[in-house]
Structure formats: C-alpha cells, structure tokens
Automatic annotation (TrEMBL), chain A:
Oligomeric and partner information: Heterodimer of an alpha and a beta subunit.
UniProt family annotation: Belongs to the ETF beta-subunit/FixA family.
GO terms, biological process: amino acid catabolic process; fatty acid beta-oxidation using acyl-CoA dehydrogenase
Main location per the UniProt record: mitochondrion
Family matches, as InterPro entries: ET-Flavoprotein_bsu_CS, ETF_a/b_N, ETF_b, ETF_beta_N, Rossmann-like_a/b/a_fold
Coiled coil: none
PROSITE patterns (UniProt xref): ETF_BETA
MF terms in GO: electron transfer activity
Keywords attached to this entry: Electron transport, Mitochondrion, Transport
Species: Rhodocollybia butyracea
Name of the protein in question: Probable electron transfer flavoprotein subunit beta
Source taxon at top rank: Eukaryota
Domain Electron transfer flavoprotein alpha/beta-subunit N-terminal positions: 31-231
Automatic annotation (TrEMBL), chain B:
Gene Ontology cellular component terms for the protein in this record: mitochondrion
Name assigned to this protein: Complex 1 LYR protein domain-containing protein
Source species of the chain: Rhodocollybia butyracea
Family to which this protein belongs: Belongs to the complex I LYR family.
Coiled coil: none
Any Pfam family the entry gives: Complex1_LYR
Segments traversing the membrane: none
Domain (Complex 1 LYR protein): residue spans on this chain: 9-59
GO BP, sorted A to Z: negative regulation of oxidative phosphorylation; respiratory electron transport chain
C-alpha cells in the first residue's frame, strides 16, 4: 500500500522485552544461557524505534496525513508491560503475540515470520507502510530480525539508521546509515523496513499521565497458531560460559626485576 | 495549603516523582523518604508565591532525575555500542 498525501501512513514497531541494560549478566547454573530472573525492560534500540515513529507522526501532522503507529511484541504474558510502555510513548494500539512462559525465546527467523504474518493480517485493513525496529536486542545482540523480515516480505531495507527523511509524494525515504568507516545514504521506496541505530534520536520517558492514558488503548492478543507460524527453535545452545576472570597485573620495582619476571614467564631475548 | 486545585497539583507531582523514584539506580539512596519529607515540610504553606516556588523545585527535581536516567542509559549504550568511525 502506498501512502498519498490524503491517506494514512501506517507504521508498525515491533518491540522486545529484553534484559534491562543495567543488569549484571550472569550465566545460569546449567550453563545453557543467562539468568533470566532479572529485571526486564524494552530493548533500548526498540525505544528509539518507537520514538522515531512518534517523531515522524509529529513532523507529518503539520499537514493532513494522519499516521497510525502500532506496537507489536512476541513474548510471554509479562511482555504486555513492554507494549504499555510503547503505548505510553505514543503508539496508538498494540498487538501481543503471546507465547507460553516456559517456551524458549523465539529466534530471529521465527520472529520475522511472525511479524510478516501480522503484516499480512493488517493488509486486510489498511496495511503497513513502514516497519521500524531496533537494530539488535541488547540481551542477545543478534541483529538479524530486521534484515530477515525485509527479505521475507520482499521489501527494501535501511538498517543502522541514524537519520530518516520521508518524502511521501515521491513515496520513498532517504536514510543515513552508520556503517564501518562512516555514513552511507540510501533511498528506499515504500513499503520498507528500517532498523534503528543509537544515534537516531533520544527516546522520551513515558510520563505518568501518558502511562494512564495508555491503559485505555487497544491491545489485540494473538497466538502463533492464529498466525500460522511455528516458533520452534532451530538451534540448540550447547554451552554458555563466562569469559575467564581477568587476573590482575603486578608492579615491579626495577628494570632488573622486570627482566627476571619476563625470563620466568618464558620470554627470551630476540 | 491554598485551595483544592493546588492540592490536586501537589498530589499529581507527588505521584509523578514517586513513579520516577522507582527506577533510581542507587538502592541506598532513599528517594521515597526524601520525597515524603520534602512534601510534608511544605504542607502548611499558604503564601501563593511560596507555593509556586515549591512546585518549581519539585519540577526541577523531576527534570534532573529524568536527565540522570537518560544520561546513564545513553552512556552505557554508547560504551557498549560505539559509533563505527574506523574500519574494522
């Protein structure tokens, strides 16, 4: 669906309930993953994505284009909190694809397939013009979902975005991307997938009045079966271990002592 | 306390600060206690100028705390996800 100046721009923002950034990560006793019994919050890159969607709406509402923002999450019942944060930041409605509490964390390919299924469901209403996601989740740092989604949908993608400028009349966007060695500018046609990098914007803090208002916004509940998607993991984590503890260095009193220590450590003169 | 509207304003501010204080990074900093004490200290104010000053202080603390949170998060993220400015 292509937006024209009189019609809606529909933005979908998938968000993830990830381990909070301030938590000290620990490997679980079974060595199969990290301790998940810790504070969770919305992935910071996803906060940036929600913020960008809200800013796009603020920029465009100077004209007559109404923009709708839908937040989406795939996760256990607790993930509803993440959706509430997105709604409090400015999303209009949300979709919760609920998985059982005991289910393993979905993999990026599964997530991408689920997002695609939600988009196809939306096509029956007004469709989705743009998907904005965080470039990676801070708990797994995989950074694959956006790219996989674009590929499954056959849409253009602009990843690691640090600036997004929309041209609705030309039906495209100019995106500045952060790449190794500098910045790159790409032009993407609608519909598109954008993944956000850290320097795109500064997300707003959801204030209490907005949190209260968010309680009235609609949340649709779906299951993977409703979408016809299987979230069975295709990979098995065999082992997770902590990196070796850093051993402190020691101070030496003189050059001779340094030479002695180097000799005992096995270094020989070249 | 002058009038029901100031009372509502004060309650609103208290609720906002209370909610903010929940995310305070230092566990040993008694945000709730300080918040309570500061509000209780000012409960008998009648002069509208003084009341305004107290509200301004409350708003100031709210903004400072918000700035603390966002800076802390930003610094952490910036450290862990640095900008690519040299070819790897």
């Amino acid at each position: 669906m292509h937006p024209s100046s009189a019609r809606l721009l529909n933005i979908l923002v998938p968000v993830k309930r990830a381990v909070d950034y301030a938590v000290k990560i620990r490997v679980n006793p079974q060595q199969t993953g990290i301790d998940l019994n810790v504070k969770h919050s919305m992935n910071p890159f996803d906060e940036i994505a929600v913020e960008e969607a809200v800013r796009i709406r603020e920029r465009l509402s100077k004209g007559s284009e109404p923009v709708t923002i839908t937040a989406l999450t795939i996760g256990p019942a607790k993930s509803i909190e993440t959706l509430r944060t997105a709604l409090a930041m400015g999303a209009d409605s949300a979709v919760h694809v609920e998985i059982p509490e005991s289910a393993p964390a979905p993999e990026p390919l599964g997530v991408a397939k689920a997002i695609k299924a939600v988009i196809e469901k939306q096509k029956e209403k007004e469709g989705v013009d743009m998907v904005i996601l965080g470039k990676q989740a801070i708990d797994d740092d995989l950074g694959q979902t956006g790219q996989m989604l674009a590929s499954l949908l056959g849409w253009g993608q602009a990843t690691f975005a640090s600036k997004v400028e929309l041209d609705l009349d030309a039906k495209n966007a100019t995106v500045t991307r952060e790449i190794d060695g500098g910045l790159e500018q790409v032009r993407v046609k609608f519909p598109m997938v954008i993944t956000t990098d850290l320097r795109l914007n500064e997300p707003r803090y959801a204030s209490l009045p907005n949190i209260m208002k968010a309680k009235k916004k609609p949340v649709t509940k779906l299951t993977p079966t409703d979408l016809g998607v299987s979230l069975e993991p295709q990979m098995e984590v065999i082992k997770v271990v902590e990196p070796p503890k850093r051993v402190g260095g020691s101070k030496v009193e003189s050059v001779d002592e340094l030479v002695e220590k180097l000799k005992t450590a096995g270094f020989t003169a070249v | 306390m002058a009038g029901p509207s100031t009372r509502l304003r004060a309650i609103k501010l208290y609720k906002e600060l209370h909610r903010l204080g929940r995310d305070y990074p230092d566990e040993h900093y008694n945000f709730q206690g300080k918040l309570r004490r500061l509000f209780e200290k000012n409960r008998a104010l009648t002069d509208s100028e003084e009341i305004e000053k107290a509200f301004k202080l409350g708003e100031y603390i709210k903004n400072e705390t918000l700035a603390l949170y966002s800076l802390r998060k930003y610094r952490h993220l910036k450290r862990n996800y640095p900008a690519n400015d040299s070819p790897s």
